[in-house]
Amino acid sequence: METTRLIIVAVGGQGNLLASKVLGEAALISDVPVRMSEIHGMAQRGGVVESAIVFGDATSSIISDGEADILLGFEPSETLRAINRCSKKTRVITNTATLPPFTVSIGKGVYPAVETVKDLLKEKCASLVAIDAMKLAKEAGSPMSVNIVLLGALVQSGGLGFTKEAMLEAIKRRTKASFLDMNLNAFEMGYTAAKEYNS
Fold first, then answer.
1. Across residues 126-140, what is the average pLDDT?
2. How confident is the model at residue 77 (pLDDT cuts 50, 70, 90)?
3. Mean pLDDT for the chain?
4. Neighbours of 191 (CB within 10 A)
5. Burial state string for 128-157 with b = 16 or more CB within 10 A and e = fewer than 16
6. Under 8 Å CB-to-CB from 167, ≥6 apart: which residues?
């Protein structure tokens, strides 16, 4: 089976780990071998959280520089920070809603313009889908569903080896019942936004 290497980068609290679990569940539903590893960093203090997920036949979950087939970013500057994982073959899906770090808010750092981030990503990768996942999450019912919006965009962009239906089933299995309708709505919104972005 062909191997697909996915890197997910986020800021602590954005739901990266739940997204990884949903993707793992979808792979299991689809009989796709999966390996994953996570780097939590300073997650509880707004630091970067990174997940590496390898689908298909592979012996390791380590994804070296230039090896990512897909980069999924929950925050634009974190997506840009992970650009060294990409090559000219990498598909990038990123949220455009910003969460500037503490250093920016106290005037000790400068946050790059989102359009600049997008231009830099386009130069490095095969394709880019950039959507305001926070706006869509709020429309779906909660800003906490940014991760599920981005999963919708990821699945629509293709390349994972399993179906939309498998992802929906994984969301049903891995998210709390009280949030299920909202999360299913968030997934559809991300899926539609990515489709429109590519058309």
1. 97
2. very high
3. 90
4. 21
5. bbbbebbbbbbebeeebbbbbbbbbbbbbb
6. 22, 26, 151, 152, 155, 187
d(CA 29, CA 61): 19
Cβ-proximal residues to 115 (8 Å cutoff; 6+ apart), any chain? none
Residue with tokens 């792979």: 27
In CATH, the number for domain 4-198 is: 3.40.920.10
Q: Where are the domains of the chain?
A: 4-198
Helices (H) and strands (E) in the chain, counts: 8, 6
Amino acid identity of 83? I
Query: How many degrees, rounded to 5, is the angle at CA 87 between CA 85 and CA 93?
Result: 70
Query: Given phi > 0 = left and psi -120 to 50 = alpha, else beta, which region is 52?
Result: beta
Given this model, what pLDDT does residue 176 score? 92
Residue with tokens 């979808």: 26
Q: Determine if the pTM surpasses 0.85.
A: yes
The token pair at 104 is 């920016």
Please tell me the distance from the alpha carbon of residue 74 to that of residue 9, in angstroms, as a whole number. 6
